[in-house]
Amino acid sequence: MRSCISKPCATRKHLEKEPKEAYQRLRGGLYELQLTTDGPATTGAEVTITASLVADDNGSLVLPTSTHFYRFHWIHTPLMLMGKTDEPFSSTIRVVGNVAGDFPVSVWVTAANCRMCRPMARSFLVLPITEFLVGSLVVTQNTSLPWPSSYLTKTVLRVAFLLHDPSNFFKTASFLYRWDFGDGTQLVTNDATVYYNYSIIGTFTIKVKVVAQWEQAMPDAGKGTMQKTGDFSASLKLQETLRGIQVVGPTLIQTFQKMIVTLNFLGSPPLSVCWRLKPECLPLEEGECQPVSVDSTAYNLTHTFRDPGDYCFSIRAENVISKTHQYHRIQVWPSSIQPAVFAFPCATLITMMLAFIMYMTLRNAAHHKDLVENPEPPTGVRCCCQMCCGPFLLETPSEYLEVVRENHGLLPPLYKSVKTYTV
Fold first, then answer.
1. Mind listing the pLDDT tens digit for each residue in 135-186?
2. Backbone angles phi, psi at 19, to 5 degrees
3. Which parts pass through the membrane (predicted)?
């Protein structure tokens, strides 16, 4: 009877079963291929592409431990293969492109003992090859702003060109840099890093033209000078700290009169502006007013006061860099011009008063004219007046009798003469 040690026997059985279980996992789509590359690259430079077999559910499955269970297959033409390296769960190739273009590269995995079987996992990528230099401009500043590509004026900027050359293709090349900072300033350097200070706000584009030059062995055993160029740019927005607010407006106004106050901001927009009227000049607390967005350096406030008194405009403004406060005192006096709601009643009353005054004036003028034309009242009226009121107006009876004589002539004698006859 054959004897065996349990542990080695169990290990041998496990190795016999593992390929079959792993193959079923791959067929079920439980694994995938991930591709990484150090491209893009310039023509003539080496590019590395790596394919890695990973679990499809973020690594919760166990990959097979057998290193000879699967095989990687690559398609990379027309790229020239410079080398290939296979590891237990990955495969790496190094290729070179001699012409510019976008080239597809595909890879798939099969069982090691079945090259013609259905692929267990596959992937592909497109590799860009250019005839120009590959790189980027990086702009940094000591002050970090929350907005992308935003920087401070009057603060030094560090601008650096980073060449993308993982294969050290340009290790013997010399470089020349022609800088254009977008504000009229140009510079030529041999260094890939420059420092610059913008004095005004605005949006600028930094451009740099890079020229690489090196010697290369030629087929005829000689040496030739090779050259590659590249144009790169970076856009940046220069902003200022908010240094203050200039308030232009009246300090004395009447009630029910529209007031306009202009705010001039000494800083760069966009701004968040908040204001409120207070009896005293005190800073605004958070949530005390509703902020408005301002996209310029000037803003107009309008307000109409209904009650007289002393007021203070408390103003707060901030941009992405800083914030500031400002105050504006104003005195409001009662207005002699009432609001429109009282205009019609007042106008009606004034019109009625003017009409009454005109009526009384015309009436008195007409009466005066009659007195001038007829200074003596009619006889009947005068007689009646004198007869009725005479005794009361005259001081003595003799005066009254005098008036009666004037009006009636001589009165008959109060006694008759007695005739005498003689017989």
1. 999 999 987 666 677 888 888 999 999 999 999 999 999 999 999 999 999 9
2. -60, -40
3. 340-362
Of 209, 239, 269, which closes a domain? 239
Residues 386, 381: Cα–Cα separation, whole Å:
8
| Residue type at position 193 | T
Task: Tell me: cis bond preceding 8? Omega within 30 of 0 counts.
Answer: no
User: What are the DSSP calls for 211-235, one per residue?
Assistant: EEEEEEE-TTS-EEEEEEEEEEEEE
Q: Domain of 52?
A: 20-57+68-130
SS3 call for 4: coil
Q: Please, are residues 284 and 248 in contact by the beta-carbon 8 Å criterion?
A: no
Residue 421 belongs to some domain of the structure: no
- The pLDDT tens digits for 290-309 are 889 998 889 998 999 999 99
Number of structural domains found in the chain: 4
Q: Which residue is associated with the tokens 């941009």?
A: 319
What is the secondary structure of 264-311 as a DSSP string? EESSPSPEEEEEEEESS--PPPTTSS--EEE-SSEEEEEEE--S-EEE
Q: Which amino acid is at 397?
A: P
Evaluate whether residue 6 is within a structural domain: no
Q: How far apart are CA 298 and CA 179, in angstroms?
A: 35
Residue type for 19, please? P
